[in-house]
Amino acid sequence: MFTNLEHLGLAVNNLEAATALYTTLLGMEPYKRETVASEGVDTVFFRVGGSKIELLGGTTPESAITKFVAKKGEGIHHVAFEVSDIRAEMQRLREAGFQLLNEQPKRGADNKLVCFVHPKSAHGVLVELCQEITSTDIEVD
């Protein structure tokens, strides 16, 4: 079950400049910075009410974020929703005909298991499912 709008992911060309801009815009410092080496991305998170803004900067030319910015420019990259059971939601979405970009949930930023729904399945929007990692999820890479 989808439980919350978790965050909006914004792809940026220069993470430090974007962080400074959003710090001023939102009137607050980010609460977390993190590298997700497996995805070739650096992230910066801001809390805004019950949701978050995630700034994403590619760290390699092969990174999906680097390619996204080169092709489409900076802007909204994805919409993320908190789910209570990511595996059950993945199964439900597959059965409903959605194309998932992951066979299994994987580790993402901010202590989350994540899975992405292909934009072709969601009217051009990349949708991310997020579930907080617990001790029972340690085996997930």
TrEMBL record:
Family annotation (PROSITE patterns): VOC
Q: Name one GO biological process term.
A: L-methylmalonyl-CoA metabolic process
One MF term from GO for this chain? metal ion binding
Q: Which residues form the VOC domain?
A: 4-132
Q: Where is the signal peptide?
A: none
Annotated keywords: Isomerase, Metal-binding
* SUPFAM superfamilies xref list: Glyoxalase/Bleomycin resistance protein/Dihydroxybiphenyl dioxygenase
The record's annotation in Gene3D superfamilies points to: 2,3-Dihydroxybiphenyl 1,2-Dioxygenase, domain 1
Which EC numbers characterise this protein's activity in its record? 5.1.99.1
InterPro entries hit by this protein? Glyas_Bleomycin-R_OHBP_Dase (IPR029068), MeMalonyl-CoA_epimerase (IPR017515), MMCE/EMCE_epimerase (IPR051785), VOC_core (IPR037523)
Record's superkingdom?
Bacteria
Could you say which protein family the record assigns here? Belongs to the methylmalonyl-CoA epimerase family.
Q: What is this protein called?
A: Methylmalonyl-CoA epimerase
Lineage of producing organism: Bacteria, Pseudomonadati, Bacteroidota, Cytophagia, Cytophagales
